[in-house]
């Protein structure tokens, strides 16, 4: 999933403006007539193939099928919420992105009502972050819920999405307004993100977020480690096949590299040129 | 005062500004010791400015902001940009007021008050007075401005740098955890931090061995040489009305600010006197 967008969302929770509830309605694909004939059962059986590498049409077709299902065995899975997230992350239009993310929240709420698991909590939190990021009042109202859902996901399925719950909760503590104004906590962020990078070293964002936490911490001996974590994450991004996630993640890496460069930290030119 | 107050005031300034100008009016925002990421804050400030511009029907991008958490950087920005309006800490205002003709314009009101007290906290029962802390480790976010702590908070009775071993931090919660573990001997807190202690669930009870006199909350300052009385009054009026505006109220509520009130210059006179006596 694209946690980078979520990071941006959280970083602006306290400041961005605008007031609205979660978006209602659905984003409709205009190519649904071209969708293959498939059932919800088929999708669930093949759900591991639906992800960042899937083309948008495939995901839109899958979402359309899931919208129509009433089968509790299907509804309690995280699949609908996960597909919404994948579509939302690659959607350029803010309105459509928020509609998709809000639908992902609704899928997850339905799933939880029917006994959904830790993955559902995880995708609920990720979608919620995307849905509220441009709306300050809504974002602040949902900070507690975001934290609760991420904690649930961490307790139930810590390893999902290469340590996604560790990564998201760590990012939340890193970027949220700090005590006493908010739940932000650099110590908790460092602990969670270090664990994400150590236990799930193959995910670029685990290293990027940990690097950001080390950088924010500002301790002299941590700055070199921040740079090496950044370099490692960037290498993983360049060399891996991350599908539709690659572009938005690259933007996050570029943004942080610029921050490092502006601070005169001397990021290696070799690393810079790779991006 | 806390960063959110600075940020909201900065954004509110826009609603009082003149109509679109070819070059955006720069607002310098200084938050010494703050833990906020400067890039995040700057970007967010600008985003918020856009909203305020829309709400106030001013042309988009009429204003811009520069944000810093470093005192030295703040001095440099104010010297270079010579802003008409700025948001500073009380310490920076006192230090720069003569050099840049700064006058306080507006103060936030929080829980019915426009002032606060600072407290030096220790583990309960460990020390009885500030004097017992001589030569010991004092932490806290306020230590980014040791002159302010010495001259205003301690009213010139203690020189922090000479009396304590200073351990400045940009994270109040981390300083308190260090105090809890005995790694620090004392932590200095502002009012907001003190009031939020109960939510931290520290292992060791804390108590204050020092409580300052009332110190006015700082808000917006203006350069009296580059702004007119009318401009400053316009600023004040718009800010005073902000928290009663429908959308503005939501922002004010969120940041815990009841209102913005026009400054009574007399409130700052004792601070100026203390500052000058400490020179």
Overview of this structure, please?
The complex is a heterodimer of chains A (275) and B (279). Chain A is an all-alpha fold and 275 residues long. Chain A folds into two domains: 1-157, no CATH class; 188-275. Chain A is built from 14 helices and no strands. Residues 1-20 and 266-275 of chain A have low confidence and may be disordered. With 279 residues, chain B is an alpha/beta fold. Chain B folds into two domains: 3-112 and 217-272, D-Maltodextrin-Binding Protein, domain 2 (3-Layer(aba) Sandwich); 118-213, Periplasmic binding protein-like II (D-Maltodextrin-Binding Protein, domain 2, 3-Layer(aba) Sandwich), CATH 3.40.190. In chain B, 41% of the residues lie in helices and 21% in strands. Chain B is built from eleven helices and 13 strands. In chain B, the strands form three sheets. In chain B, strands 2-1-3-12-4-13 form a six-stranded mixed sheet, sandwiched between helices. Chain B has a five-stranded mixed sheet with strand order 8-7-9-6-10. In chain B, β1 (25-30), α2 and β2 form a beta-alpha-beta unit. In chain B, α1 (3-13) runs parallel beside α2. The longest helix of chain B has 18 residues, at 38-55. Residues 1-21 of chain B have low confidence and may be disordered. Classes of the chains: A mainly alpha (275), B alpha/beta (279). At the A-B interface, α8 of A face α1, α2, α7, α8 and α10 of B.
